[in-house]
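Q: May I have one protein plus its fold?
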Amino acid sequence: MSTSPTEIFTVAIDEETQARRLDKALADALEDISRARIKVLIEAGQVTLRESGATILDPSAKVKPGQSYQLSVPPAADPTPQGEDIPLDVVFEDDDLIVINKPAGLVVHPAPGHAGGTLVNALIAHCGDTLSGIGGVKRPGIVHRLDKDTSGLLVVAKNDATHQGLSDQFGVHSIERVYYAICWRAPRPRQGTVDEPIGRSRHNRQKMAILTSGGREAVTHYAVKELYGPPHAPFASMIECRLQTGRTHQIRVHMTHIGHALIGDPVYGRGKAVGGLTPEARAAVKGFGRQALHAGILGFDHPISGDPLKFKSKLPNDMKALARILAEPSP
């Protein structure tokens, strides 16, 4: 093994490799490095096109004959986050993966402003050194994420084979992910699909937005489950959202786009309050300190055994209380 701080690999693209995704072409040429890890390295800016020196950040970019790519692989590093004794609601666990019911308010992985007290810190304490390293030193085992203030089900990989298998299922959209959102008013029709591309907002880099060009495919299937207020003009509704894709803030952006922002959403839901609420309901909405969103169903095939797995999580108490108050009739 090389003792240099970083290993450099060069991959030339030939006629047989052309038109493949960049991450797949590199993984096929470098058999000792998994495709999942290569994807992470590409997104981290570790791949350049030798002919121009340009950094390539898109793992799905199509390669062409005559091109050659340089991949820089930093040396393996021990996870820098420290284990912390943070309680975990473990729904399922075996030697390969763990499914967590994440509470609202818990950040998934360390990031600026959240160096500790995260789900990763809790997982390191719970799982020791068994977590997959593909996610990098800050995100061991993390295959997907939930926003800090979104509650619900999340799966974490304990080894690289499981991480790769789960990543592949997320990549082909075969993971079943069902969320429950309490939104303002209710869409018509009561069941439908929002198919609008999402990307970083060009006006506010802290937000995501519907983009007419340059966005990534984003598809959300929704169905209204409960109406709050008069049936002909409800002031709020419980909406089941099934993700076909999983973009950052997807449900929050899509529901806002069709005029039904999530109650409590501090980024996309401001100024969306409507009339018709009882004083109790108005106070409950005002005091609801997060977006009303819960990941309630998570289903996938076990990456090692192949067994189908499906997990369900009931609404957390804060959303139950909000729904109960919203459902109370006006005096």
